[in-house]
Sequence to fold (326 residues):
Amino acid sequence: MVDSTFIRPRNNWIAAADQLVSEDKAIAHAVVIFVRGSSPREVGANMVISETQIWNTIGGGSLEFEVMKQARSLIKENSHIAKSSYRRVLNLALGPDMGQCCGGQVKVLLEILNRSDIDGLLSYAEGVFTLAHPLKTGSSIEIFDGKDSSWSNPKLENDTFILPTAKRLTPLFVYGAGHVGRALMKIVSNLDFDLHWVDIDEDRFPKEFTVVYSKVVAKDPQVIASHAPSDAYHIILTHSHPLDEAICFALLSRNKFEFCGLIGSQTKNARFRSRLTKMGVTDAQLKRLTCPIGIDDINSKEPVKVAISIAAQLAIWQEKNGTKVG
Fold:
């Protein structure tokens, strides 16, 4: 039996804007549309700004502070902004203008959007769509790709900036809702993963948890592993060695995953590899199993430090294998 409660990741800027905009106050959508030299963030980095709150970041520091300052000044000018979409392109030299040592040049598109504007975009608040953002006041944001499209690189095209509505997140399956699992979920929620948390019993999950994830209650977690997407990452740290072994076998024998990590000692590693070999897992498949998981520089067995070690290894793996999105 599988009970899966899916909570969609709130990584879509329109969904964030819907939460921050009000009937009488607009919000600002700031997007990095051009970079020359060094800069805090890449082209396509974006954030939503209200009078009192922000969502996401375009790099922090003086650059972000200046963009927020200008955005909030425009938001207060509701007399004309509330009637039509207002846009301004900020051309900022990070050295002389911002006092930052990056030394690069950044252009930021600042869109001021009201409740009506956001309501017109809500059909794109779930999933990943590609929209065309005009650089000039008076034009509306339009669909560039009508399909639920894969992640494409943001780009300037004529007088518009082409930007997907959200990052395409890589699936990460965490098996086990114990102390390490709970600590790990809090940390990896800051990485570019679509989180799926799997355990055998509803009662094993925390009652209150602020992390957005898909909860999967499964008596046989290996079934979940057998049907996971081929680009998924898997971290196995359940309360049971037989359960760990069954999940490992399901993943390795199918051999369709991006990363498979198993918590444990060198002794557990050797024992599992011996047993999996007898079960028919090939040497080539066994080479894809990472055990013990975590980086070598952290040896502590404290749950939070184990979780930090695992998260660091995942981030390194993302970077090396080109699966980082955004």
